Amino acid sequence: MTKIDEIAKMCNVSKTTVSRVLNHHPYVSEEKRNQVLKVIKELDYTPSSLARQLRANKSQTMAISVPAIDHPFFSQLIKGVSSKALEKDYKVLIFQTFYNVATEMEMLDLLKNKEVDGIILGALENEWSSIKPFLKYGPILLCNEYHDSAAVPIIGYDEFDAAYKAVSHLIERGHKKIGFCCDTPSSQAQQLRKEGFIKALLENDLQCEEDWMFDHAFSIQDGFRVFTEMSSLADKPTAMFTGNDQVAAGIIKKAMVAGCRVPDDLAVIGYDNQFICQVTTPTITTIDTPIAELGQQAAAKLIKNLGKNAEMKREVVRLPTKLIVREST
Amino acid sequence: MTKIDEIAKMCNVSKTTVSRVLNHHPYVSEEKRNQVLKVIKELDYTPSSLARQLRANKSQTMAISVPAIDHPFFSQLIKGVSSKALEKDYKVLIFQTFYNVATEMEMLDLLKNKEVDGIILGALENEWSSIKPFLKYGPILLCNEYHDSAAVPIIGYDEFDAAYKAVSHLIERGHKKIGFCCDTPSSQAQQLRKEGFIKALLENDLQCEEDWMFDHAFSIQDGFRVFTEMSSLADKPTAMFTGNDQVAAGIIKKAMVAGCRVPDDLAVIGYDNQFICQVTTPTITTIDTPIAELGQQAAAKLIKNLGKNAEMKREVVRLPTKLIVREST
DNA sequence: TTACAGTCTGGTATCGGTAACATGTCAATA
DNA sequence: TATTGACATGTTACCGATACCAGACTGTAA
Questions:
Q1: Positions in chain D where some atom is under 7 Å from a protein CB
Q2: Which pairing describes strands A286-288 and A322-324: parallel, antiparallel, or unpaired?
Q3: How many CB pairs under 8 A join A and B?
Q4: Contact B173, B263 (CB under 8 A)
Q5: Are A160 and A195 in contact (CB under 8 A)?
Q6: pLDDT at B114 over 90
Q7: Are A222 and A247 in contact (CB under 8 A)?
Q8: What is the pLDDT of residue B309?
Q9: A248: closest CA among A133, A327, A146?
Q10: B177 Cβ partners below 8 Å, 6+ apart?
């Protein structure tokens, strides 16, 4: 690698002068500036960003954590974050926690020693009390996750409202026995959904039946599993809030194969309005969520706060969602 | 941030001794070692990896480029790479090129100044001649891409064989008018598929019809588009090699809605054996590709070569694929 | 003529670690 | 007793950049 000293030597100037040229400082004569630029080009010199990072104590990099990248929701979220970051000239380090507490801590260490300037948590594996101490090292932001006492910006959907809308829709369609799927039950964001679900039920004098609640439902496979479990119940729900289009697709497919008609025998509602909703038979009624927008807003907010070294304050943004009615309800 | 000097001062030793403890060097007395470890724990000290990286001139980080992360194929590929990298204690910087030549060059610059130690190219936007000069800065590896003259390891599927198998299957089912979809037509990996496609046709005295070739087909939406374009043809194909499960799903859905029966009027074969194949109606015949395995092997090969500073040699690995017959053919 | 501000340039310390080399101790060996 | 080598520790340079301070030169106002 060519380094700044070599350029300096070739131009008979000090490396300070070369550095000034690189950083567009005034007070460099036109003549030397041109000469330095010429030599830089000739030698194809790129300054070491590692050295710069060390010196400046910042990295122009942010990290985002997700449980796993291969779920459409998270890959789209990341895409949103990345596109905004790219626009603002930040790099993005993507971290998959694989639902692992220790991996998440490793990522937080990146913040501690300034390998990244800030972090977006798209997953929350540890207790908040474990994460809190890292706030002094740089900004952290919750995206698509929720915590009631975290003193950081939180940006997500109005999960409560979304679930309420979805379940109300099922009730309007005449259903009285409604099931509920969620992914990680300990997640507070999932709790909010559950509260919305329950509110809609209670408003219509319906009960929340423990047997109709399913956990860790995230993928198409999980949808298969949920349908199988559900089928074995003596008293089966006639409608399902799945919390996830993949799960909805899985349930619907298994149902159709089993001769259970959707939506007549079983209505199913998804979440996120992924394209998969449009290719199943029947197509899937769902909640439209602006995922890319979510990612972009999160990244924008983080970047805005990277300059200041004031700690970020709690602030909850809930993006609106929309019910999209299709054939599965 | 606590730094190594502070630890040294607190322990009344030199920072070299602290460094020795950190790096598990021998020749540190048990007594001092324990004392240092104790103080490190007390002050919650983490060494700056930025400083380490600068000093060692390596970063324990690899980069992988993909066109966009939100396509299931690429997110699964990345997952494979990441899991292997995590296991070997490497970080992964994920780079989305967004099909952009300049963004790809930016990533290559990371290699030049050792922000990353090596690169896996899962996308290939620039001409190889633009990429080749970067080989002197560190190992580069092609994954799921192909280039006939690149002197680097290439790891992908046997695309030729896969397409050949798929199309032969369609022909066995009695089809004589077979269409072909690909994503970026300039990609040499796509070319290999096309050659396999053509070989199967020629062996059965069939022609490759220009009107039945579709470009830039990647997503469900693209599948919708392809079906629409196809429908407007006077002479329509009766079978489609889509090169991609999403495209297959899109085509199938539009076909069914339009009253075109699958597979009777139109047979469709996918590629990658994504879960989506199992939730459409009809389910999708496809080529099973071990995507995670591909990513893991790529990462493993790269890591193996990061230690040595010898340039990597050309070496082509083609993982086998398998035909999975379902209802769409 | 002197003083001072503005322009241009270089020397040196610094970011936070690690490596090479030097030094010193102590016990085993010749 | 002198020599050797294993062990233990510290001093100093270095990775590749930038920031601060100081010095030199120029032009204009006092």
A1: 7-12, 14-20
A2: antiparallel
A3: 134
A4: yes
A5: yes
A6: no
A7: yes
A8: 60
A9: A327
A10: B209, B212, B235, B236, B237, B238, B239
Distance from chain centroid for Cα B78: 6
Cβ atoms of A81 and A298 closer than 8 Å: yes
Cα atoms found within 13 Å of the Cα of residue B267, Cβ hemisphere only: 24
Is pLDDT of B80 > 90? yes
From the number of C-beta atoms within 10 Å of its C-beta (0-12, 13-18, 19+), residue B30 rates as exposed
Mean pLDDT score, B315-322: 96
Rounded distance, CA B142 to CA B151, Å?
10
Domains and CATH numbers, chain B: 4-47 (1.10.260.40), 57-157+292-320 (3.40.50.2300), 159-288 (3.40.50.2300)
Tell me how long chain B is.
329
Q: Rounded to 5 degrees, what angle do the CA atoms A246, A251, A257 make?
A: 125
State the residue for tokens 């899109």. Answer: B250
Distance CA A151, CA B269 (A): 51
CB contact burial A184-205 (16+ within 10 A = b; e otherwise): beebbbbbbbbebbbbbbeeee
Q: Tell me, yes or no, if A22 comes closer than 8 A to chain B by beta carbon.
A: no
Gyration radius of chain B's alpha carbons: 25
- Amino acid, single-letter form, for residue A4: I
Amino acid at B55: R
Q: How many helices (H) and strands (E) does chain A have?
A: 12, 12
A62 touches chain B (CB under 8 A): no
Residues of B in contact with A113 (CB under 8 A): 1, 46-50
DSSP per-residue codes, B1-65? ---HHHHHHHHTS-HHHHHHHHTT-S---HHHHHHHHHHHHHHT----HHHHHHHHT--SEEEEE
Q: What is the pLDDT of residues B25-66, one digit of tens each?
A: 989 999 999 999 999 999 999 999 999 999 999 899 999 999
Say how many C-beta atoms besides its own lie within 10 A of residue A167's C-beta: 26
Rounded to whole angstroms, how far apart are CA atoms B74 and A259?
Answer: 35
Confidence of residue B297 (pLDDT cuts 50, 70, 90): very high
B51, B96, B109 member nearest A79 (Cβ): B96
* Residue ranges for chain A with pLDDT beneath 50: none
The pLDDT score that the predictor gives to residue A2 is 84
Other residues' Cβ atoms within 10 Å of the Cβ of residue A229:
11
Cβ atoms of B270 and B284 closer than 8 Å: yes
Residue B229 makes CB contacts below 8 A (sequence gap 6+) with B214
Please give the pLDDT value at position B221. 97
Both tokens of residue B15?
């920072």
Q: In the predicted model, what is the mean pLDDT of residues B253-278?
A: 97
The residue length of chain A stands at 329
Chain B residue with the nearest C-alpha to that of A86: B103
